[in-house]
Amino acid sequence: MRRASRLVPALCLFTGEEVIRGRYKFFAALLSAVSIVEILRVVRGPPSQTEGLGAFFIVGLWVVAGPLCRSWMDEDIRLGYAAFWLQKPLKPFDYYLARLVSAVVWSGVSAIAVCLAALPGFVAAGDFQGLAHLALGAGWIPTLLVVLSFLGSSLGARNGGLFAYAMLLVGFALPGFADAVWLGPGRDVLEVIFPPASAGLLSVNTIRSYGVAAGVAQLLPIALYTFVCAVLGLLLALGVPSRLMRAL
Amino acid sequence: MTDLVRGPSIEVENLRYRYGRAKDWALAGISLRIERGVVLGLVGPNGSGKTTLLRLVLGFARPFGGRITIEGSAPVAYRTRQGIGYLPEQVHLPAGVRVRRLAEFAGRLASLDRSEAQATTGRLMTTLSIDDRADEAVGTLSHGYRQRVGLLVALLGDPELVLLDEPANGLDPESVGVLRSVLRGLKRQGRTVVVSSHNLLELERHCDEVVILSRGRVLGRSSRTELLSRPDIWIVRLSRGSAEAVYVQRLRAKLRGVRLAADEAGFAHGRAALEFATRARAKGCVVEAVERRSFDLEYLFHSLVQLDA
User: Fold this and answer.
1) Do A18 and B96 touch (CB under 8 A)?
2) Could you tell me if A142 and A110 are in contact, meaning their C-beta atoms sit under 8 angstroms apart?
3) How many domains does chain A divide into?
4) Residues of B in contact with A10 (CB under 8 A)
5) Residue B182 forms contact with A (CB below 8 Å)
6) CATH fold of B231-293, please?
7) Shortest Cα distance from A71 to chain B (angstroms)?
8) Would you give the DSSP letter of residue B257?
9) CATH superfamily of this structure's domain B10-224
10) Contacts of residue B98 in chain A, CB cutoff 8 Å?
11) Interface touch B105/A21, C-beta < 8 Å
């Protein structure tokens, strides 16, 4: 654990260079789009625009995490990068824990960047508090996507991003299956497998209506789900050397 | 051999390994000891088990039978404590990262602090002649330069055991020169180096010992001194059909000749070789050549592998 924590700054820089440096145009375009569209909505639309602003803000959160949703572990094994990392004096668990933490740090940074990009629009609408509520209630989206892609890659998914987005989408769609009798007990199983994403988003309204504490309490299942996915991914990371042996 | 010996010794005992449900053993009971500070060359045809042996020394998998110890420790324990420099046969590194950042990152993985990682990276980049490419992305580099970056990553952290898997594969003469100087440096510093290669001349020149593998077994082992001190050998080369004749085998045994390959017999003295050639001709065999040549690694390798086949 201590070794992993010492590796995190180096891995943050490395991940930043690997992911952000080559895609600065993408991030600049995305953040500019969020900023411009939010301001245009306020300038051109009716006085109360918070709902519309919120929807676009959340779309921004979905998109900004895309480049971070990489198949880290699968790439390490399939392309043999891990042969270079794991020859050093460290355990696979420490390395992948640091890797995951650095990706989570970047997901937080990307969520903050979207908040900052959306800020002028919300300030213009006179609803600064609304942005704070949205950030608190929906800011978990990039982190969950990153953790899901990590889990997907540890399970051998070649496209961790696709895996993560599919999981999150199904998580959002799952409450629609509430009346699906044909699923039977299968629905309970699906509820465990897929993220409780809708419940997570409901917290935005709860924060507005009942306060921060109640809203944060509503976020606990999604936090627990994210934690369990991370632990599962890390446990699978222990097998990276033997998978590398077969793959190289 | 250098006075300063830093590298560990490696003990391999009856090592067996196979991939998945493969019928054949990739390693079928290999035993060998590598002394501290020795540069050992592994040579063998494709599929002979060289790469598998290196990966097992790295501790990437558990053998099916037998054991490996590095300085008395299991490979995983040694690697996680000391680190092992390893250059795989295929060097794949993240394409979008600059060489300097990659190297500094590898240095941090090797427990160096930031300033140490930067200093070591700078020094090694000069040694490997890649300092002019330090700020280029890895993906834009040629094969030779990528191989050097791989070597740079492997050597960061000052590992005392270095494993190089076909390091000279597809390299231009300049990169081969860099590799040679790195090997000489490692040898001078007393590290244990295991290098697998198809370039027998390079191995003969740089390795203290050479182990010949075939079909997952050790066929032979020779030190550099032994190879250099072996007297020349006389070879009689017969056409294929003649070599298979029972008569030839008997005659070879009678004249104390060694069967070096399916169609070759080797003799310590020229007289015996000529006598063999004359008698073989008299019996209708086609003698293609009688020649004298040095008993070098290339000859040893071909003889042992062909005999094994």
Assistant:
1) yes
2) yes
3) 1
4) 104-105, 108-109, 114
5) no
6) Alpha-Beta Plaits (3.30.70)
7) 13
8) -
9) P-loop containing nucleotide triphosphate hydrolases (3.40.50.300)
10) 17
11) no
Return residue ranges of chain B for CATH 3.30.70.1150. 231-293
Q: Is the dihedral of CA A148, A19, B108, B168 positive or negative?
A: positive
Q: Where in chain B is the domain with CATH 3.40.50.300?
A: 10-224
Partners of A241 on chain B (C-beta within 8 Å) are 59-61, 76
Chain center to CA of B99: 28
**Residue numbers of the domain that contains A73:** 2-247
The answer to whether A147 and A222 are in contact (CB under 8 A) is no
Nearest beta carbon to residue B108 from set A7, A18, A244: A7
Q: How far apart are CA A100 and CA B214, in angstroms?
A: 42
Contact, A14 vs B101, CB < 8 A?
Answer: yes
* CB count in 10 Å sphere of residue B70: 27
By Cβ distance, the residue of A84, A90, A244 closest to B93 is A84
A87/B104 CB distance under 8 A:
no
Three-state DSSP class for residue B244? coil
Cα–Cα distance, A204 to A137 (Å, whole number):
5
Euclidean distance between CA atoms A243 and B214, whole angstroms: 25
Strand order in the sheet with B264-267: B258-261, B264-267, B233-238, B287-293
How many Å lie between the alpha carbon of B105 and the closest alpha carbon of chain A? 6
Nearest residue in B to A247, CA atom: B19
- What pLDDT tens digit does each residue of chain B (309 aa) get? 445 788 899 999 999 999 888 888 899 999 999 999 999 999 888 888 999 999 999 999 899 999 999 999 999 999 999 999 999 988 889 888 899 989 999 999 998 988 888 899 999 999 898 989 999 999 999 988 999 999 999 999 999 999 999 888 878 888 888 888 898 899 899 999 999 988 777 777 788 888 988 888 888 888 877 777 777 778 888 887 776 676 777 777 777 777 666 677 888 788 888 888 898 888 888 888 888 877 777 777 766 666 665
Nearest CA in chain A to B157: A88
Alpha-carbon distance A204 to nearest alpha carbon in chain B (angstroms): 38
**Per-state percent for chain A, helix, strand, coil, to nearest 5:** 85, 0, 15
Whole-number Å distance between alpha carbons of B48 and A57: 58
Q: Which of B61, B86, B157 sits opposite A245 (nearest CB)?
A: B61
Q: What ipTM does the predicted assembly reach? A: 0.81
Of B186, B180, B226, B182, the closest CA to residue B205 belongs to B180
Q: Closest CB to A21: pick one of B96, B109, B157.
A: B96
Q: What is the pLDDT of residues A73-92, one digit of tens each?
A: 999 999 989 999 999 999 99
Residues of B in contact with A87 (CB under 8 A): 58, 79, 83-86, 154, 159
B22 part of contact set with chain A, CB < 8 Å: no
Of A10, A11, A246, which is closest to B20 when you measure between CB atoms? Answer: A246
- List CB contacts of B296: < 8 A, sequence separation 6 or more: B200, B204, B227
